[in-house]
Automatic annotation (TrEMBL):
Pfam families: Arg_tRNA_synt_N (PF03485), tRNA-synt_1d (PF00750)
Family statement: Belongs to the class-I aminoacyl-tRNA synthetase family.
Cellular component, GO annotation: cytoplasm
Stretches assigned to the Arginyl tRNA synthetase N-terminal domain: 21-129
Protein's GO biological process: arginyl-tRNA aminoacylation
Native source species: Candidatus Woesebacteria bacterium RIFOXYD1_FULL_46_19
Catalytic activity: tRNA(Arg) + L-arginine + ATP = L-arginyl-tRNA(Arg) + AMP + diphosphate
Keyword Protein biosynthesis applies: yes
Enzyme Commission identifier(s): 6.1.1.19
UniProt protein name: arginine--tRNA ligase
InterPro entries (alphabetical): Arg-tRNA-ligase (IPR001278), Arg-tRNA-synth_N (IPR005148), Arg-tRNA-synth_N_sf (IPR036695), ArgRS_core (IPR035684), Rossmann-like_a/b/a_fold (IPR014729)
CDD domains: ArgRS_core (cd00671)
């Protein structure tokens, strides 16, 4: 029904505005591009909060009036009066709205679903659906079931939604909960629009922080099979507290992570068990939420691709040395570290490896990252790096940012 109303508004406004020879002549005299019809994307059609204002309402006559009055403005005293030609067609938004309504009321297809159209306020046009139309739509919903509201808009296009992405060995935070819920909603919406949608849970399962965990579990003689997600997170907290008075612990932790990178059997066994404990907890939460993410390619999934990606970045000439680290410098953004001074890779390097894989494996038209707004700068750096590397092509990269919830103990 919404589409039918939009098309009716487009047709009525086009007839009033772009079929008037005086206005067309005025456009041509001023070198203004003449279009054949109103752009339907410029028509805002909303559902009013107050049902007294109808089932649908548009402010189109107000926005269109201001736009065309400005475009046809004559050099008359005061300089702020609408163009004479335009003023002859409609002296104010209310008059334009009334003319549009007059045309709408001649549309038999529209009148099949609308029982009343009225002009309100400063030029709003309100639409009231007929009971017959509502009952017919309910019947459509009942017959079509899950297919109701689907579209072929995205047919032939692929979208990848990167969402949830909790950290291994840590509790499922509220930020990850929001990313999961919003990300799943985006996934569902794009799927309904006919896109091929791929959901990827980019787990935080790698990094130097795992060295602290491996050290704690080994030094305390803990059995990983008996640990819970809460106990794993507590080990992080205890390590950081101890390291404040004994900085050498950081060297030990880094040594443990190096063992993990070198595929030391003991380090690998502990890490794999920790990942398994975490995934079981995450799946428990996903089951409650009704979320089922297609893939869970964590950061560790791209380790075998990392050297090739970093070498490609080096060959592009983007990497420069800075205090032992390798960084990318941008024109309008702060520099970003790709390889740390100790040779460890960063989130940026691992995200670039993930993008390289996704381009080769899925060839997405749209990359969507549902992550908190505190990561806005990071994603600007990531997307700019992709552009500078020439990987972007015709793909669109989007950071859908959710806001932060702050508590007394922090965000």
């Amino acid at each position: 029904m919404r589409d039918k109303i939009l098309k009716a508004i487009q047709a009525a406004a086009t007839k009033i505005i772009y079929s008037d020879s005086r206005l067309i002549s005025a456009f041509k005299e001023r070198g203004i591009k003449v279009v054949s019809k109103v752009n339907i994307r410029e028509i805002s059609l909303e559902c009013p909060e107050n049902e007294n204002f109808g089932d649908y309402s548009t402010n189109f006559s107000m926005t269109e009036y201001r736009k065309l009055a400005e475009r046809t403005k004559s050099h008359v005293p005061g300089g702020d009066k609408p163009g004479i030609i335009w003023a002859e067609i409609a002296s104010n938004p209310i008059e334009l709205a009334k003319k549009i309504v007059s045309e709408l009321e001649k549309n038999p297809e529209l009148l099949e679903i609308i029982k009343k159209i009225e002009v309100a306020g400063k030029g709003f046009i309100n639409f009231y659906l007929s009971e017959k139309a509502l009952l017919a739509e309910l019947d459509n919903i009942n017959r079509q079931g899950n297919e109701y509201g689907t579209s072929s808009l995205g047919k032939g296009k692929t979208v990848i939604v990167d969402y949830s992405s909790p950290n291994i060995a840590k509790r499922f935070g509220i930020g990850h909960l929001r990313s999961t819920v919003i990300g799943q909603s985006l996934y569902n919406l794009y799927k309904t629009l006919g896109y091929k949608v791929i959901g990827d849970n980019h787990l935080g399962d790698w990094g130097t922080q795992f060295g602290t965990l491996l050290y704690q579990i080994d030094s305390k003689g803990l059995k990983t099979s008996e640990l819970t997600i809460d106990e794993l997170e507590k080990l992080y907290v205890e390590f950081n507290a101890e390291a404040k008075s004994n900085e050498k612990l950081w060297d030990i932790a880094r040594a443990w992570f190096k063992k993990l990178e070198e595929k030391d059997p003991k380090a690998r066994e502990i890490w794999e068990k920790v990942v398994d404990i975490s995934l079981k907890e995450f799946e428990r939460i996903y089951d409650i939420l009704g979320v089922n993410i297609d893939y869970a390619y964590g950061e560790s999934s791209y380790l075998d691709k990392m050297n090739g990606v970093i070498e490609e970045i080096r060959e592009s000439g983007l990497l420069t040395k800075s205090q032992g680290a390798e960084i990318i410098e941008f024109k309008d953004l702060p520099p970003a570290i790709v390889v740390k001074s100790d040779g460890a890779t960063t989130y940026l390097a691992r995200d670039l490896a993930a993008i390289r894989f996704r381009i080769g494996e899925w060839k997405p038209d749209i990359f969507i990252y549902e992550v908190g707004s505190d990561q806005t700068l990071y994603f600007r750096q990531l997307f700019e790096t992709v552009r500078l590397l020439g990987w972007k092509g015709n793909s669109e990269f989007v950071h859908v940012a959710h806001g932060l919830i702050r508590f007394e103990h922090g965000k």
